Amino acid sequence: MAIEVKNVSFFYSIGTPFEKKALENISFSLEMGENMGILGPTGSGKSTLIQLLNALLIPTKGEVLIDGLNTRERKNGSKIRELVGVVFQYPENQFFEDTVYEEIAFGAKNLRLSKEEVDRRVREAIAVVGLPEAILDKSPFELSGGEKRKVAIASILVRKPKYLVFDEPFAGMDYPGTEALVKFLKSLRGTVSLIVVTHTLDELLGLVDKIMFLDNGKMKAFGPVKDIIHFEELRKYVPLAELISLLEQKGLNFQLNTFELDHLEEEIVRNVLFS
Amino acid sequence: MSYFPNVGMGTFIPVDSIVHRIDPRVKIVSVLLLLVFLFVSKNLLHLMPYMVFTGILFYLSKIPIKAVLKGLKPILFLLLFAFLFQIFFTPGTVWFKIGFLAVTKEGVNMALLIGLRLVLLVFLTNLLTFTTSPVSITDGMEELLKFFKFLKVPSHEIAMTMSISLRFIPTLFEEAERIMKAQMARGAEFGTGRFLERIRSYIPLVIPLFIGVFRKAEELAIAMESRCYKGGEGRTRLKKLKLEARDYIAMVIVILFLVANVMWGWF
Known about the structure:
The structure holds two protein chains of two kinds. Chain A has helices at residues 46-53, 77-83, 100-109, 115-128, 145-157, 175-188, 225-228, 241-249, 261-274; strands at 2-12, 20-31, 36-39, 61-66, 69-70, 84-87, 163-167, 193-198, 210-215, 218-224. By secondary structure, chain A is α/β, with parallel strands linked by helices. Chain B has one domain (18-266). Helix content of chain B is 68%, strand content 3%. Chain B contains eleven helices and two strands, in the order αααααββαααααα. Chain B has helices spanning 18-21, 24-40, 44-61, 65-70, 76-89, 105-131, 134-145, 155-185, 195-201, 203-226, 245-266, and strands at 94-98, 101-104. In chain B, strands 1-2 form a two-stranded antiparallel ribbon. In chain B, strand 1 (94-98) and strand 2 form a beta hairpin. The longest helix of chain B has 31 residues, at 155-185. Classes of the chains: A alpha/beta, B mainly alpha. The A-B interface holds A 12-13, 15-18, 51, 54, 56-58, 78, 81-82, 85-86, 88, 91, 93-96, 106-107, 110-111, 141, 155-156, 159 and B 1-2, 6-7, 13-15, 64, 66-67, 178-179, 181-189, 203-204, 207-208, 211-212.
């Protein structure tokens, strides 16, 4: 059971004067239970890639298989969207129901579940995102920014996806909000496979097992965190990177296997103390 | 998979061509004149020169033929309806009968005339929008509307409203596509089921879209006010429109074409 992306290329507006290459020859696989971060500058193709994962876009070339289901086959569309839940950027902009309950239930109802099952899932989802049940009767439009984002995430969790994709989940959030969301995402590890798209690395610290670095539609690096940490372009996104490079030039030896700030600090202390 | 067309009616196609370089005022006036004379023509034969003339203009504009034909897509239904209506319901000499419906010679003539007029109407207006950026169109409109200053026509305000509307059409489509995808990710299906279900299926798209539009309008108003926008009074231009030799030549060609066509009708 896995996500398999094989030699995928994608062009927008193909055959028109506005034709634009978004992705070129991307291949990777992600086993169930693994968590992955997709990193890259704005316009590098990150959002396009995740839309290919739940059949919202079909590759121009190549294939995307979700647990063996090919996104190219139309009949697989709804099953694939059940397996892969995508939380888009600013997901609160998709709200349209009168109450938070109805908003969350929308995704479950589309699975044609019984009323009791929908109710059970809504209450479970609101608990998972850490909001009180009392919020269910409120209008989704009167919530705070952080609450709205949590409701939007609950409206995807209610569909019980195996793979959960977040497109820039921290966009427009303040620092405490981002911290809380990272903590929440970490709590989801093990229950679903997370794919988190971002253009800064800080939030991915300790959250993902693999990282893909995209630039201008091309996959520049992909692999376990410890293997690609020394990838030069990725270093731009690592906190304290300049300090680490400087200390390495001075002859210090870092054994980095994660981007977590705590670990980096430990490594610096270890080097300074024992060098 | 694209949920909304990228090239269709009214999309500017940035190609370097002689038609693109002509002053927007000349293009607007020319298209208006051609459309007026097109609809005055009552003879099918007289529409042929318009076809040839429009064809030459498209050739010179370097617009891909695919985009030209795609522009017809939105009016196909109207075209078919008008065509069939004229064929079957115009009284005159009966040519042949299909059941109780009689096809008359006048009907076929009228159907072709109206069909061709509609096609040319779309082609000519598309020629204007394909070859002129929305900003140039509104600049041109603003300048042309200044002729009606004595009637106290608020030319700048009209042009600014038009420009903002045009500017936001692609944004609106992008927003609609984004919301549609987000709702599809939650299992929504659009346009399926029976008639009422189909209409209801669009609620998850329409409500967030409207909320977004009002939010954007508010943001835009604040952004404009914060940059001291206060209407057209005392406003200067960075790029002033200036007629060049090619613009005069283009205008003369269009007028000569129209005069020749009118004279052909007289004799």
